[in-house]
Automatic annotation (TrEMBL):
This is Penicillin-binding protein. It holds the Pfam family Beta-lactamase. Residues 45-261 form the Beta-lactamase-related domain. It comes from Brachybacterium ginsengisoli. It comes from the Bacteria.
Amino acid sequence: MTSGRDAGESSLDVLDEFGFEAAAIVLGPEGERARRGDVGRIRPWRSVTKVLTGLGATIALQEGRVDLEDPAGPPGSTLRHLLAHASGYFYESESTLQAPGLRRHYSNYGIDEAARHVERALGRDFGGWIQERVADPLGMRGLDWTGSPSVGAHGALTDLALLAAELLRPTLLEERWWAEMTGVQLPELVGIMPGFGKQTPNPFGLGIEVRGEKTPHWTGAGNSPATVGHFGMLGTAFWVDPTADLALVIGTSHDFCDAHRTVMPRLADAVLAEHA
């Protein structure tokens, strides 16, 4: 696939359009293909942390430590509901908006409660589980896991690239469980996609967003519906497109804003045009 860009230009030149500091790494199945900017800078991952939590929970599922149908959260809710933002919890409160399974209501509290459920089942600290079963095997040596399992991680883009590479070519999950994590849970649910309004439907996997047919969206028009990933409100994001066999990791020095809404889709399409 040709990029249509002049010789010597890179799709990552689109980073200049942000108007503030930004960096990125492009990954293929063989590893890193391109990078630009300060990819070693420690950045707050915010909601990208949810993908680490989803992966750690899915490893526990794979080992039979927990089950997706375990009662967890408010009455009638299960671990599946919590990890897929369908428990009915408010954004950051144990109060509920509606019964479980009726709507996709994005909830930091729900992800934190999912981690607490897994932690109780394991009989150990969830952060230690993430370090031992995810960070150490993937070589994420700079990951700083502090605070909330929904928003607490900090790290460099080089560490986030290791997570993206794992989702592109899984080594920690068997195929069945990779498909469970990255597939759509409760596919019919409608909901608000933070920063992008109501989506009908609004697909999510286990702690990870699934692109589906969402519009508008922070990935590109060329990204496949099977694309998964997450963005954080402090400017860090990544996506993995299994159809294009490509991943992109992004970090900026600015809180999520209109520039992210406009530049990230253009960046994604430029990367797909050059590398897919």
